[in-house]
Structures
1.
Amino acid sequence: MDASEQIDQRIRDLDDWRGARLADLRALIHEADPEVEETWKWKGTPVWEHHGIVCTGESYKLVVKLTFAKGAHLQDPAGLFNSSLEGNLRRAIDIREDEQFDEQAFKALFLEAVAYNRDNPPKSKRL
């Protein structure tokens, strides 16, 4: 299976609100950035990439978590980040069942992360 098929399977396997929410978030990601690439890393984590990793989508018993790899560098004017706030690099959004979610702010945040990746490519290692 390719990465997109593995994400499809994950959504089917989460046969409760978490699968539905992950599917909705995935659709928002593709609406925001039709060129986003889906990958599957770390033995079971959906990842969305454009100019590098933008975010991962994890599911836990009580939350669906979107972790932005370089979230600490993003503005987040709507205050979507509510988890992993103490780190120097990543930030996350924990979404609980029946929680309201600002879809437009999320798409804007996702695009900001893509722009950050584009404008700040990783420094190559010198041999």
2.
Amino acid sequence: MSSNFRTRDVTKSLYTNYIKRAEECLHAAKNSFAIQEWNAVAINVIHSCIAACDAMCVYFLGKRHAGESHNDAVNLFKTIKVGDEEINTNANRITRILRIKNMAEYEERLVYKSEAEKVLKDCERFLEYVKKELPNYQE
């Protein structure tokens, strides 16, 4: 897989900062869901997944994506274990979540409840996977 995307070196031990950020954003998304704020659910889920993706890349690769395209962040994530089924499944989760990013953050259409439910579930599953993969992670 070509690595023609920008990255930034990050000290491996700092992965915990990214996972903490991911958990806080997921917590905010769940709170927003409880009060039917579908747009806030989507926006927080997006940022949770980006942070969780960064946590994995920092821990396993010692770097995180630093470019404009979040799709490149997914491609970097996939280099952790090239061809691994779980990596690919979770890369697909991130991709599904990122598809809603532009609409949720910038466009005039609002996020529907059904969309918020789907991305929230994907985010929960992704974060569960990430925490399982990161050694000695403690909440």
3.
Amino acid sequence: MEKIIMKATLRMERGKNSCKRLRKTGQIPGVIYKDGEEGTSVFVDGKTLWHALHTEAGEHAVISLDIQGGAKTSEKTVITHEIQIDPVSDKIIHIDFHEISLTELIKVSVPVHTKGDSIGIKEGGVLNLVVWELQVECLALDIPENITVNIESLKVGDSVYIKDIPNPPKVKILGDPEQLILGVIPPHAEAEVAPAPAVEGEAAVGVEPEVIKKGKIEEEGEEAAAEEK
């Protein structure tokens, strides 16, 4: 995975009115967080951000922020932590970044994808995907787009657990080895299968780097959706 270079500008003004003015000019307000440090307020170009998040890496994109506006230009390597979307316009209205090190292992959640046509499904069975994301540990540039599970050989009644999934190159899949990921069930059993409990450490929104604790979201970010309605 390659780094994406993107410009950012320090925000000297903070608050909802300042953020509203930025959005009207196509800029997206955001905050860069790092363990034990106060967040750095910035803004980035909305179109550039959209393109950065729609590469193959998606929200796992490693971004090199070229930050301007201070006494001197600085550079920070970040990944997205939380993206706030306006529920009406479906546009990004605020973004949180987390600063990372390219030489430090991080923990993120990536989606589970299936590959192949299951024997059991061809016979009338139903694929029951229990866990939609898995937490992995790796370097930032080695984050996989997804964890792919080959289901071609699965028959009705067969299941796949974390222990059955091989680790991708340079990546370690985390979690209880006995955690059920998916299975092929008889059609009549589909309605009887209860949802599995969430995997410990699984991200609720976007990527959750465990090496960096989530900072307190600014008031301006929390109020953004309401003021854009």
